[in-house]
Design a protein that fits this description.
With 176 residues, the protein is α+β, with helices and mostly antiparallel strands. The protein has six helices and six strands, in the order βααββαβαββαα. The strands form two sheets. A three-stranded antiparallel beta sheet has the order 1-3-2. The chain has a three-stranded antiparallel beta sheet with strand order 4-6-5. Helix 4 (85-100) packs antiparallel against helix 5 (130-144). The radius of gyration is 27 Å and the shape is elongated. The protein starts with 7 loop residues before the first strand and ends with a helix.
Length: 176
């Protein structure tokens, strides 16, 4: 009788399928989290009860894909200060479009952008593989570099009090 035809599982088999210790599965049974029938001195778990615990359909009892050994995931938060709303929208569009371009789909990047109008600050949260994250960070660095005009012009910027800034030397010192 193969695994696909099986109607009842032992505690050990459920533990192996879930990657848990046998004692943990027994505690699930005793606590009522996992329904089981006692046959002799052993518990047996039905395919339906196993599916109810895992949230999987009863016919999909095989464990899901597990990350390959040596799998690495990077999480990065990029904070960009003094960025206008139009520039933030353009940057968000660039970043989102680049993550949706054709890449290795086995490890896709997950990106979220947030813009705070009050603080004129943008945060970009990046989760994914090392190479794809490094590529995206390099692209962001290139977009925000001094040769790119993504930032609004500093000559026409206004200070927080609303007056136009005329001291460009002081602004340069603040940005450095």
């Amino acid at each position: 009788m193969g695994n696909d035809e099986r109607e009842l599982y032992s505690v050990g088999e459920v533990a192996e399928l879930l990657g848990l210790h046998v004692r943990t599965v027994r505690n699930y049974v005793r606590d009522g989290r996992l329904k089981a029938v006692r046959i002799g001195k052993q518990y047996r778990i039905s395919k339906e009860d196993f599916a109810a615990l895992t949230g999987r359909p009863a016919d999909a009892t095989a464990p899901g894909p597990t990350p390959a050994p040596g799998h690495v995931e990077v999480s990065s938060i990029v904070q960009i200060d003094a960025l206008g709303p139009d520039a933030a929208h353009r940057l968000s569009t660039y970043v989102t479009a680049s993550t949706q371009s054709v890449r290795d789909t086995s490890d896709p990047l997950r990106v979220q952008t947030v813009y705070d109008k009050e603080r004129t600050r943008m945060k970009i949260v990046i989760l994914g593989g090392t190479a794809a994250t490094a590529d995206l960070l390099h692209m962001i660095d290139g977009l925000l570099g001094p040769d790119n005009d993504l930032f609004t012009s500093t000559a026409n910027s206004t200070t927080s009090s609303g007056s136009t800034s005329t001291s460009t030397g002081r602004q340069g010192a603040d940005r450095a």
